[in-house]
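Sample intake sheet
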Amino acid sequence: MDPQRIINLQRSYQSSKLPLYLRGKYAKPMVYSFIGLFAVTTVHSLYYTTRAVCGFHVDD
């Protein structure tokens, strides 16, 4: 094993211009799926909250 392995890995990690939360191996899919799910649930809850405040309801 290369004795300079850790130093080389640290050097490449610190020289990256990506934000810290996007640097990991599975970071991008996890962050983007979280953002997508968060956006969908926020829009969904705001849509039905607006309908409730305005008095719209489903006629059965």
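Comment: Residues 23 and 44 are 31 Å apart (CA to CA). The chain has a mean pLDDT of 90.
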